[in-house]
Write a structure and sequence with these properties.
By secondary structure, this protein is mostly beta strands. It has one helix at residues 41-51, and strands at 3-6, 14-15, 18-19, 23-26, 63-66, 73-74, 77-78, 82-88, 91-94. It has one domain (3-94). Helices cover 11% and strands 30% of the residues.
Length: 104
Protein backbone atom coordinates (compact mmCIF):
# COMPACT_ATOMS: atom_id res chain seq x y z
CA UNK A 1 0.00 0.00 0.00
CA UNK A 2 1.49 3.32 -1.03
CA UNK A 3 -1.10 5.82 0.17
CA UNK A 4 -4.22 5.62 2.32
CA UNK A 5 -6.36 8.67 2.95
CA UNK A 6 -9.11 8.49 5.57
CA UNK A 7 -11.51 11.40 5.94
CA UNK A 8 -13.83 9.94 8.57
CA UNK A 9 -14.82 12.51 11.18
CA UNK A 10 -14.87 10.31 14.28
CA UNK A 11 -12.31 7.50 14.42
CA UNK A 12 -9.70 6.69 17.03
CA UNK A 13 -7.18 5.78 14.30
CA UNK A 14 -7.62 8.90 12.13
CA UNK A 15 -5.33 11.90 12.60
CA UNK A 16 -5.22 14.55 9.86
CA UNK A 17 -6.57 12.13 7.21
CA UNK A 18 -3.89 9.53 8.10
CA UNK A 19 -4.76 6.13 9.54
CA UNK A 20 -2.49 4.93 12.32
CA UNK A 21 -4.13 1.50 12.70
CA UNK A 22 -1.71 -1.35 12.24
CA UNK A 23 -4.26 -3.33 10.24
CA UNK A 24 -7.25 -1.97 8.32
CA UNK A 25 -10.23 -4.26 7.83
CA UNK A 26 -12.61 -3.82 4.89
CA UNK A 27 -15.73 -6.02 4.93
CA UNK A 28 -17.44 -7.71 2.01
CA UNK A 29 -19.67 -4.62 1.67
CA UNK A 30 -16.58 -2.31 1.57
CA UNK A 31 -17.25 -1.02 5.11
CA UNK A 32 -14.22 -0.16 7.26
CA UNK A 33 -14.54 -2.72 10.05
CA UNK A 34 -11.49 -1.46 11.97
CA UNK A 35 -13.04 1.96 12.68
CA UNK A 36 -13.31 2.73 16.39
CA UNK A 37 -15.36 5.73 17.49
CA UNK A 38 -13.53 8.18 19.75
CA UNK A 39 -14.87 8.46 23.29
CA UNK A 40 -15.11 12.24 22.95
CA UNK A 41 -16.46 12.16 19.39
CA UNK A 42 -15.55 14.49 16.55
CA UNK A 43 -14.62 17.30 18.97
CA UNK A 44 -11.91 15.13 20.55
CA UNK A 45 -10.63 14.31 17.06
CA UNK A 46 -10.32 18.03 16.31
CA UNK A 47 -8.20 18.53 19.44
CA UNK A 48 -6.04 15.48 18.61
CA UNK A 49 -5.41 16.86 15.12
CA UNK A 50 -4.39 20.25 16.53
CA UNK A 51 -1.84 18.55 18.79
CA UNK A 52 -0.51 16.05 16.21
CA UNK A 53 2.89 16.63 14.66
CA UNK A 54 3.17 15.94 10.92
CA UNK A 55 6.38 13.92 11.33
CA UNK A 56 4.61 11.27 13.43
CA UNK A 57 1.94 10.55 10.86
CA UNK A 58 2.39 7.38 8.84
CA UNK A 59 1.30 7.22 5.20
CA UNK A 60 -0.51 3.91 5.46
CA UNK A 61 -1.19 0.98 7.73
CA UNK A 62 0.92 -2.12 7.43
CA UNK A 63 -1.88 -4.28 6.04
CA UNK A 64 -5.29 -3.67 4.48
CA UNK A 65 -7.35 -6.84 4.81
CA UNK A 66 -10.22 -6.76 2.35
CA UNK A 67 -13.14 -9.10 1.70
CA UNK A 68 -15.00 -6.86 -0.75
CA UNK A 69 -15.78 -7.87 -4.30
CA UNK A 70 -13.24 -5.53 -5.89
CA UNK A 71 -10.66 -5.63 -8.67
CA UNK A 72 -7.95 -4.69 -6.13
CA UNK A 73 -8.72 -7.55 -3.72
CA UNK A 74 -6.27 -10.43 -4.05
CA UNK A 75 -6.15 -13.17 -1.42
CA UNK A 76 -8.09 -10.98 1.05
CA UNK A 77 -5.57 -8.12 0.73
CA UNK A 78 -5.90 -4.76 -1.00
CA UNK A 79 -3.42 -4.34 -3.85
CA UNK A 80 -4.38 -0.79 -4.87
CA UNK A 81 -1.60 1.82 -5.00
CA UNK A 82 -3.81 4.20 -3.00
CA UNK A 83 -7.21 4.04 -1.34
CA UNK A 84 -9.69 6.49 0.11
CA UNK A 85 -11.77 5.64 3.18
CA UNK A 86 -14.55 8.12 3.92
CA UNK A 87 -17.87 8.58 5.69
CA UNK A 88 -20.75 7.42 3.48
CA UNK A 89 -24.33 7.65 4.68
CA UNK A 90 -24.35 5.58 7.90
CA UNK A 91 -21.04 3.72 7.46
CA UNK A 92 -17.38 4.47 6.82
CA UNK A 93 -16.50 2.81 3.52
CA UNK A 94 -13.68 2.22 1.08
CA UNK A 95 -14.48 4.61 -1.75
CA UNK A 96 -11.83 3.09 -4.05
CA UNK A 97 -13.74 -0.18 -4.50
CA UNK A 98 -14.33 -1.11 -8.14
CA UNK A 99 -16.49 -4.15 -8.68
CA UNK A 100 -15.22 -6.47 -11.42
CA UNK A 101 -17.23 -6.74 -14.61
CA UNK A 102 -18.74 -10.17 -14.97
CA UNK A 103 -18.23 -11.93 -18.28
CA UNK A 104 -21.37 -13.13 -20.02
Amino acid sequence: MIKLKCTTTNCQHNIKDHCNAGIIGISDKAVCSSRIKRAGGALEQTFAELEASEEFLSDAPNVVQCNACCIYQKNNRCTAASILVADHMLKTKCMTQIKPKHKK
